[in-house]
Amino acid sequence: MRSPAEPESFRLVIPSQTRYLNLVTGLAKRAATVAGMDDATSAKVSIAVDEAVTNVIVHAYGGEAEHQVDIELRFMPQAIEVHICHTGRPIRDNEVVLPDPGEYVKHPRKGGLGLLLMSRFMDEIRFIETAEGSECLMIKRVV
Amino acid sequence: MADLLIQVRDADGVAVLQPEGFINAHTVRQFEGALEALVHEGRFTILLDCRFLHYISSAGLGAIMGLIETVRANGGDILLCHLQKNVHEIFDTLGFTQLYRVFDTEGEALQCLNRNA
To answer: Which of A100, B81, B93, B115 supports an S-S bond with B103, CB 3.0-4.6 Å?
Structure first.
């Protein structure tokens, strides 16, 4: 049973397959709406979750379909937290290099855009190593 | 309903590609395949009619980016119309609205192409 101090939350564990993306993003969008966000903000949360889960499936697990991605959404008093956990190759904060959008427009190339979208659409992103594996934590505040 | 349905039609000699649903890492091969098929047919001017596109992730943007040089090198272009608000925001956030010509309607896009023909 949840103690009163713990935030309300729910978890979804999916196989590491992109066919479940739509399920996860739909749920994230609904959760953001329940947290009090408007449609435009909820859509941003949904896109950021798509990008983060895709990163896990494609990069952390290298496209291998037999792993699991653990997604937890926590309803904080003024924010929603999305915890995406996996046991694949970790992404460390210091490995994250965001493309400069101005430079990107001058010298367009394929790739690197997912993290940029995540960072623009969420208020905070952290990559954390835990005893069980790795976690991408994203926070969106209710304004 | 499928995650992504794609219709391709012709309008004033321009190939109009109309995706319906979601373009993400799961559906991007289908989207990329449809774009590549047009390019292989020599259709280098492509209008993406996004009126039924609910969202596009970076995977989909990468697919467009992967073909833009080819179509422009052949005198064509990829144009966009009818972007829904959240899709427009994705394009705008990444600076794609500076890289691609974006129109409110298909008619405006075709008119612009006809003027430049």
So the answer is: B81
Q: Are A71 and A84 in contact (CB under 8 A)?
A: yes
CB atoms within 10 A of CB B21: 19
Q: What is the DSSP letter of A50?
A: H
Question: Does A71 map to a domain?
Answer: yes
Q: What is the CATH number of the domain that holds A77?
A: 3.30.565.10
Contacting A with CB below 8 Å, chain B residues are 3, 22, 24-26, 55, 57-59, 61-62, 65-66, 68, 85-86, 89-90, 93-95, 98-99
Q: How far apart are CA B1 and CA B87, in angstroms?
A: 20
Specify whether the CB–CB gap between A57 and A63 falls below 8 A.
yes
Which pLDDT tens digits describe chain B residue by residue (117 residues)? 689 999 999 999 899 999 999 999 999 999 999 999 999 999 999 999 999 999 999 999 999 988 998 999 999 999 999 999 999 999 998 888 888 999 999 999 999 998 877
Question: Is A3 domain-assigned?
Answer: no
For domain B4-112, the question of CATH label 3.30.930.10 is answered with no
Q: Which amino acid is at A104?
A: Y
CB distance from A107 to chain B under 8 Å?
Answer: no
Residue A52 token pair: 């983060």
Q: Is A1 contained in some domain? A: no
CA distance A30 to chain B (A): 15
Residue ranges of domains in chain B: 4-112
Q: Which domain holds residue A101?
A: 8-141
Which spans in chain B are helix H?
A: 28-40, 58-73, 85-93, 96-99, 106-116
- Prediction ipTM score: 0.89
